[in-house]
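# nightly structure sweep
# worker-07 picked up a monomer target from the shared queue
# config: single-sequence mode, recycle default, output format = structure tokens
# input follows
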Amino acid sequence: MSKEQLKELLPRIHEQHEYLAQISNENFYRPFAYSKVLPIPPRFPWPDLPVTYDELDRMLGECLYRLGVPL
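# output follows
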């Protein structure tokens, strides 16, 4: 990937990470009485990106490394 492509990817990774945090919080705070209700499948903003914190963090670190940003 070129540096321009990597720079375009960073906001997408951030948006995906924020969405993952949002649905994680919603699931954590959902009242126990509703736990038997089938969850609506999440609609991630970027289906082509990973959907776990570990994978997103790894991708973010790789992008920053390739862009020469000190970690």
